[in-house]
Design a protein that fits this description.
This protein is of the alpha+beta class and 193 residues long. It has two domains: 63 residues, no CATH class; 107 residues, no CATH class. The chain contains five helices and five strands; from the N terminus they run ααβββββααα.
């Protein structure tokens, strides 16, 4: 299993198995990185430009394995995600990839978020903590699943349910949201004083 630089498990055998799409992939299947940041790698940008900036990994959707944008999420091009030198896939942070717990953030509050970013990709030789960083690949895990994965006994793709403590914290925040949304007239608010 893939290891973090400190030697703890990251909960996956292959980080690329947990990628839906590259952050630089547009809805039309084009490479945004080559168009906007190509001056950092002119050879790559010129090759993409010659193909109208088409991503060599993604292909236009022609089956069921696509996201609503119309681009296939399972690579069908001539490259794999790992072949692209500028690939990056970071989480959207809406729910835990392992147990499905949804994020509930509260505005103007410094409480710790329910979900955390979990890095699946580390240095090339992650066991030794040496080498150039590999592609950035992250998923969202709740704090409870994140701890289990780093304690080396849980996997990201386990069929898991949220912990009771996680559910209680999410429900507490949901209750606060509902209380905030309830209508109270100015007369009622000022009458209390």
């Amino acid at each position: 299993m893939e290891k973090a630089p400190g030697g703890s498990s990251v909960g996956v055998d292959d980080p690329y198995d947990h990628v839906r799409r590259c952050d630089h992939l547009t809805d039309e299947g084009k490479c945004r990185w080559a168009r906007e940041q190509g001056h950092h790698d002119p050879t790559f940008a010129d090759a993409r430009s010659a193909e109208e900036f088409r991503c060599p990994v993604a292909a236009p959707a022609d089956g069921d394995d696509h996201d609503p944008s119309g681009v296939q999420t399972d690579p069908a091009g001539e490259w794999e995600w790992a072949d692209c030198p500028h690939f990056r896939a970071t989480t959207d942070g809406t729910e835990c990839r392992r147990c499905g717990l949804a994020e509930r953030r509260t505005a103007h509050d410094d409480r710790r978020p329910l979900l955390e970013e979990h890095h699946l990709s580390y240095a090339e030789d992650s066991a030794a903590g040496e080498g150039d960083p590999a592609h950035e690949i992250t998923v969202s895990l709740c704090r409870w699943c994140h701890a289990k994965v780093h304690n080396s006994w849980a996997r990201v793709d386990d069929d898991a349910s949220p912990d009771a403590e996680a559910i209680a914290e999410a429900e507490s925040r949901k209750g606060e949201e509902l209380a905030e949304l309830s209508f109270e007239s100015a007369a009622e608010r000022f009458d209390r004083e």
